[in-house]
Amino acid sequence: MARRALITGITGQDGSYLAEHLLGQGYEVWGLARGQANPRVSRMRRLLADVKVVRGDLLDQGSLISAVERAQPDEVYNLGAISFVPMSWEQAELTAEVTGMGVLRMLEAIRVCSGVSRGGSPNGQIRFYQASSSEMFGQVSETPQTESTAFHPRSPYGVAKAYGHFLTQNYRESYGMYAVSGILFNHESPRRGAEFVTRKVSLGVARIKLGLAGELRLGNLEARRDWGFAGDYVRAMHLMLRAEKPEDYVIGTGRMKSVRELVEAAFTAAGLDWERYVVTDQGLHRPAEVDLLCADPKKARVQLGWEPTMSFEELVAMMVESDLRLLTDGGDPGDGSWP
Ligand code: NAP
Ligand code: G4F
C-alpha cells in the first residue's frame, strides 16, 4: 500500500517541491490548505493535480485533528508558517501563533489521533517533520553552524522557530514520538516568494533587462547567507523521516555569499552592470540583522547520504532565466513561475 503524507504549507515554495518529490516516490499526498477562497490553493490544484486537499489552519486545533483523521498519514511535514522575517516584527503575535504555537497544535493533533501517551513507543506511529530554520542561530556563536551550535535568534520569527524546534525535541523525548527537525539554511528557486531577496533580485534584473524598471532598491548588501536549491532540500526532509532513528539535521551547502555577490551574479547572468541600477535603502534594513549564516552539513552527508546538487551560480542563473521567461510571456510574478 502507498505511504501517505500530509503537508502543511502546501501552497508555499517547499510544499510544492516536496509534494512533487513524494508523488514521484509513489506516496499519496495530502496538502493542508487554509482560507475559503485562497487563490494560491487554486493555483496549487492546477499544477499539482494529484495532491488531495484538506482544509485546515495552524491557528485552529480542531481543523488539524480533522485533517489527520481524514488523511490518515504515515508522515506529517509541518512547512506552514509566517516565513518572511520582516513581517515577524510587524505581526509578532500572529507569527508566534502560526510559526510557534502551530507546531504545538500539529504535534497535539498527531498525539491525540495516534493515542500516544508518555513513554509510548515510536514504532508504527505517525512520523513528524518540523521545518526549523537557520534563523534560530541568529547572532552566531561559531561558524560554520552545526546541530549543536547555540541559538540566539534575532527576530520574532527566529524565536517562534526556536520554540517549535525545542517542542519537537520535547515530544520526541516525552512521548517517544518519531519527531524530527531539519535546520534548513536559505533555499531558493523560481517558485520563491517575490518578497525574499533572491527572487526580488532575479525579478528586478528581469524587469530592468526588459526595460520595465530602471532601478532595484535593496537593504543590507553585506549580509551573508548559505543559499541552496529548494528541490535539493525537500529530498533531505524525506530522508530524515525515513531514517532508522529520529534525529535533527543541519541542511545547507557549506558555502556563504553576500547579498552584494548575489546581486553581482544575477546582473552578470543578464549581461548587466549592477552598479548602474542598485540603490540601497535604509528603510529596508532590519531592526536586528543576522549578519552571516553558513552550514556544516556533515551529519546529513554522513548519516543520510544527502548532498546538494546545484551551485550558487547555477541557482542564480536559473532564477534570472526563469523570470525573464515569465515576464516575456506576460506571467504574473506574484504567481511565481511554476512550470
Ligand atoms: P512559504 O513559501 O512562505 O510558504 C509558507 C506556507 O505556510 C504557505 O503555504 C502558507 O499558506 C502557509 N501558511 C501560512 N499561514 C498558515 C496558517 N495559519 N495555517 C496553515 N498554513 C499557513 O515558505 P517556504 O519557503 O516554502 O518554507 C517552508 C517552511 O520552511 C516554512 O516553515 C519556513 O519558515 C521554513 N524555512 C524555510 C527556509 C527557506 O529558505 N525557504 C529555510 C528554513 C526554514 P497560504 O498560501 O495560505 O499563505
Ligand atoms: O531573503 P531574505 O528575506 O531571507 P532571510 O531573512 O534570510 O529568511 C529566509 O531564510 C531563513 C533561513 O535562514 C528562513 F527561515 C526564512 O523563512 C526565510 O526563508 O533575506 C536575506 C538577507 C537578509 O540579511 C536581508 O537583510 O538579505 C538581506 N536583504 C537585503 N536587501 C534583503 C533585502 N532581504 C529582503 N527580503 N529584501 C531586500 O530588499
Question: Layout of SSEs?
Answer:
Blueprint: E1 4-8, H1 13-24, E2 28-33, H2 39-47, E3 52-55, H3 61-71, E4 75-78, H4 87-90, H5 92-113, E5 127-133, H6 156-175, E6 179-184, E7 187-188, H7 197-209, E8 216-218, E9 224-225, E10 228-229, H8 230-242, E11 249-251, E12 257-258, H9 259-269, E13 278-280, H10 298-304, H11 312-328
Parallel strand pairs: 1-2, 1-4, 2-3, 4-5, 5-6, 6-11, 7-10, 8-13
Antiparallel strand pairs: 9-12
Bound molecules: NADP nicotinamide-adenine-dinucleotide phosphate and ligand G4F.
NADP nicotinamide-adenine-dinucleotide phosphate binds next to helix 1 and strand 5.
Care to give the gist of this entry?
The chain has 339 residues and is α/β, with parallel strands linked by helices. Helix content is 41%, strand content 14%.
Describe the structure.
The chain is built from 11 helices and 13 strands. With 339 residues, it is α/β, with parallel strands linked by helices. It has 2 domains: 208 residues, 3-Layer(aba) Sandwich (Rossmann fold); 97 residues, Alpha-Beta Complex (UDP-galactose 4-epimerase, domain 1), CATH 3.90.25. A 7-stranded parallel beta sheet has the order 3-2-1-4-5-6-11, with helices on both faces. The chain has a two-stranded parallel ribbon with strand order 7-10. The mean pLDDT is 95. The structure holds NADP nicotinamide-adenine-dinucleotide phosphate (NAP) and ligand G4F.
